[in-house]
Write a structure and sequence with these properties.
The chain has 180 residues and is an all-alpha fold. The protein has two domains: 105 residues, Rna Polymerase Sigma Factor, Chain: A; 62 residues, Orthogonal Bundle (Arc Repressor Mutant, subunit A). 72% of the residues lie in helices and 0% in strands. The protein contains eight helices and no strands. α2 packs across α4. The longest helix is centred in the middle third of the chain and has 30 residues. The chain is elongated, with a radius of gyration of 19 Å. The N and C termini lie far apart (53 Å).
Length: 180
């Protein structure tokens, strides 16, 4: 058993900050990797993209760990980085898509296929806007409190509560449509 396995996140962060201890940071990665990947994967619905964003998040966290002040939980700070990495990937994707669209101006747009009768949660998530999807995944899927999710997304707590209410209503409506 590693000497690090009995330490909590704050102790592991302190070791990493004090001595650039890669083993301590590795244990932090092990503590959060599954939840972080799950959040990103549910948000993107693309395994390769979720893998990339998760890896980029841990790289950024390691590079910037000296800036972590402990004003929030390490998990909250880490998910904030992941969310910013996701937004950055969407901006890159948007720029690429714009370039591709210029080359495809004469090509007709693909029509969206009808949803199967057996709509699942992944498909229902597609009906949510980015804010609704983020708060639902952070609070319901990743188990963060509303205040922690508010810090991750850098939005007011009241707005977060509105988004989560909207998201739950949309999800319920989409899942009920499936059962009709």
């Amino acid at each position: 058993m590693s000497k690090y396995t009995l330490l909590d996140d704050s102790q592991l962060v302190a070791l990493t900050q004090a001595s650039n201890d890669r083993c301590a940071f590795s244990v932090l990665v092990n503590h959060h990797q599954t939840n972080l990947f799950s959040f990103i994967y549910r948000y993107t619905n693309e395994k390769y993209l979720a893998d990339d964003i998760t890896q980029d998040t841990f790289i950024k966290a390691y590079e910037k760990i000296s800036r972590f002040e402990g004003k929030s939980k390490f998990k909250t700070w880490l998910f904030s980085i992941a969310y910013r990495e996701f937004l950055q990937s969407k901006r890159k994707e948007s720029r690429l898509q714009h370039t591709l669209n210029r080359f495809k101006q004469n090509t007709s747009q693909k029509y969206l296929s009808k949803l199967d009768d057996s709509i699942d949660i992944s498909n229902a998530l597609n009906y949510l806007n980015n804010n609704q999807k983020a708060v639902l995944l952070l609070c319901d899927a990743s188990g963060m409190s509303h205040s922690e999710a508010s810090l991750v997304l850098k939005i007011p707590l009241g707005s977060l509560k509105t988004y989560i209410k909207q998201a739950r209503t949309i999800m319920q409506n989409q899942l009920e449509k499936n059962n009709e």
